[in-house]
Specification:
Number of strands: 16
Number of helices: 13
Helix content: 25-40%
Strand order of the largest sheet: 4-5-8-12-13-14-15-16
CATH topology of the largest domain: TIM Barrel
Shape: globular
Structural class: alpha/beta
Bound molecules: 2-phosphoglycolic acid, zinc ion
Order of helices and strands: EEEHHHHEEHEEHEEEEHEHEHEHHEHEH
Length: 431
């Protein structure tokens, strides 16, 4: 047996940042190397995602993962044992075939993604390499530009505001560490402003401030003010990025904005968001329309895609076929990559390749339910993806990822240097 042959696969139940159980898988190789990974979990999920296998019933609100852990220890272990861990595609093919469903519902996307990522970690460990280096082969990666949440909303803050994520992107930073420094100052300034005005209600799921705002525009105004109070230039140095997550409040071409007290059709949503793009230094908009509104996404992209990044998350669900379909329709110009939406690394990577073939940008993303697992940081580096989104710059499951990036930057020949502005679709809008 070769040293990189998989000798055992162990599943166990661990905990995520929402106090819910999740699946960890540990893979051991014949030569003694080991790798492990933990499945994240989303709260605003696209209908086309791989689904997590949950136990249902009373315990843990139905979020138990005993069945997924059993699958990892049983069927998944039997299918992977003996395979060479360096053959990621071969391992992932086995997982896909073993599950046999289109949405990983039999074994659970939580079990398959943890197993898939653990195989990659074990293969890297066997070669004595960090995962990013193992994935990058001979390429010399550059640090991804962080996209960081300041306020939570939508499904992450009991729908206090309709928009799910109010984030910043330090578009003017030249170094990864500088982008984090600037963002931390904005986070702090936002907290101070909200405290002064009695608008701070707590912390949302991804570590951002839980706002007591009366509407989406108050969030945008406060964010601009926070950037200024941090001594930074809105737009030139720090741009705003929104995850509208419109599938959460819209379907069949109707969008109900609870806080603004109105219902809009697709054109109305495009006009509303277009107005915000005019008035505020917005550089990126994720899921501006619902996942079933491909025509709307295409219209939005035609109207604003030359000025802002139009990112597909719930609409594209890290799925290569959907990315190709979107490209044909002209919907979106960038894709969010969440490994657990696909269920295996190979399928997620295929979505990236489809995005590249279409000339789309890409962002590797964590989920709102997270852990100390830092695999996504290594994927962004190893796959050469130019942006990274892991929530806010607070809470250990978020800082674990940003801090891993700081360590990796020290090891890169390019240091912490960020991709050139020309690599981003808002290049003409900022700087
Ligand atoms: P999630 O959403 O709650 O499904 O992880 C995060 C996002 O929409 O980017
Ligand atoms: Zn999203």
């Amino acid at each position: 047996m070769s040293a990189t042959a998989i000798s055992s696969v162990t599943g166990r139940r661990v905990w995520n940042s929402r106090a819910r159980p999740t699946v960890e898988v540990e893979v051991a190789l014949a030569g003694g190397a080991r790798g492990r990974a933990i499945a994240p979990a989303g709260a605003s999920r696209g209908s086309g995602e791989a689904v997590d296998l949950r136990d249902g019933g009373e315990a843990f609100g139905g979020y138990g993962v005993e069945r997924a852990v059993t699958a990892a220890n049983g069927e998944i272990a039997a299918a992977l044992e003996g395979l060479d861990a360096r053959d990621q595609e071969g391992a992932d093919r086995r997982l896909v075939a073993l599950d046999g469903t289109a949405d990983k519902s039999r074994l659970g996307g939580n079990a398959t993604v943890a197993a898939s990522m653990a195989v990659a970690h074990a293969a890297a460990a066997a070669q004595g390499l960090p995962l990013w280096r193992h994935l990058a082969d001979d390429a010399e990666p550059v640090m991804p530009l962080p996209e960081i949440q300041i306020f939570g909303g939508g499904a992450h803050a009991a729908r206090r505001v309709d928009v799910q994520d109010f984030m910043v992107i330090a578009v003017g930073a030249s170094e990864y560490a500088e982008a984090l420094d600037w963002t931390a100052e904005v986070y702090r300034a936002a907290r101070a402003i909200m405290t002064e005005r009695g608008l701070l209600a707590g912390t949302a799921d991804e570590g951002g401030h839980w706002p007591a705002f009366d509407g989406n525009e108050q969030a945008l105004e406060t964010l601009v003010e926070a950037i200024e109070r941090a001594g930074l230039e809105p737009g030139g140095q720090v741009g705003i990025s929104l995850d509208v997550a419109a599938s959460e409040f819209g379907a069949d071409g109707r969008y109900r904005l609870a806080r603004d007290g109105r219902t809009l059709d697709t054109d109305g949503m495009c006009d509303l968001l277009g107005g915000w793009i005019e008035r505020f230094p917005i550089v990126s908009v994720e899921d501006p329309l619902a996942e079933d509104d491909f025509d709307g996404l295409a219209a939005f992209t035609r109207a604003f895609g030359a000025r802002v990044q139009v990112m597909g998350d719930d609409a594209l669900v890290s799925d290569a076929a959907r990315v190709r379909q979107a490209a044909e329709a002209g919907a979106c110009n960038a894709v969010l990559l969440k490994p657990n939406q696909a269920g295996t690394l190979t399928e997620c990577r295929a979505a990236l390749e489809a995005a590249r073939a279409a000339g789309y940008g890409a962002v590797v993303s964590a989920r709102s339910g997270e852990t100390e697992d830092v695999t996504v940081v290594h994927l962004a580096l190893g796959w050469g993806v130019e942006q990274l989104k892991v929530g806010s710059i607070a809470h250990g499951e978020r800082t674990a990822k940003w801090n891993e990036g700081l360590r990796i930057a020290e090891a890169l020949p390019s240091g912490g240097r960020l991709p050139p502005r020309a690599a981003f679709p808002w290049g003409t809008r900022c700087g």
